[in-house]
Amino acid sequence: MKTTLALLIVTAIVATTAFGVARSLRSRPLELHDTAWLRHELKLTDAQTAEVAKLEADFQKSLADCCAAHCAARAELAGSLADATKAADCCARMCAAQNDSEKVALDHILRVRALLTPKQQKRYTALIQQQLTGPCTMRIQPATN
Questions:
Q1: Under a CB-based contact definition with an 8 Å cutoff, are residues 61 and 67 in contact?
Q2: Distance CA 21, CA 41 (A)
Q3: Which string of DSSP letters, residue by residue, matches 73-127?
Q4: What single DSSP character describes residue 138?
Q5: Could you read off the pLDDT of 28-82 as tens digits, one per residue?
Q6: Domain boundaries, the chain
Q7: Spatial contact of 70 and 119, defined as CB atoms under 8 Å apart
């Protein structure tokens, strides 16, 4: 009886620990924009690392431009809430900037992927899929029926 109880307690502790570790690893953000992390994760060559670093610098600049456009439109929206037409225009510009940032991100992913070997591409795709299917960054809850 004592052995069975001890075995159940140990099993519960191990299961709880394993669940906690798995959950923390799943929710930990990926470092897809850290070239050193990507180099290690994908086992990039020196040449690949240099190219990825260039692509990352270009991506960050393009993303900053999208962000600046979005923030400018949002700031203008704050001052034009009394005018529905102006507010709608600001909203449209914010949406366009968001759309541009998504296109820039996809273009970056495809450019990086093109530099990789088939084995690296498979791992990179899995990492991107993991990031895309993770928690919603906008904190929007999924629809419930």
A1: no
A2: 20
A3: HHHHHHH-TT-HHHHHHHHHHHHHHHHHHHHHHHHHHHHHHHTS-HHHHHHHHHH
A4: T
A5: 556 777 888 999 999 999 999 999 999 999 999 999 999 999 999 999 999 999 9
A6: 66-114
A7: no
DSSP 140: P
Rounded distance between C-alpha atoms, residue 78 and residue 88, angstroms? 12
**Among residues 136, 114, 128, 121, which one has the least CA distance to residue 32?**
128
Structure tokens at 24: 């923390």
pTM summary value: 0.71
Three-state DSSP state, 134:
coil
List Cα–Cα distances, 76 to 22, 37, 39, 73, 125, in angstroms.
Answer: 44, 38, 41, 5, 38
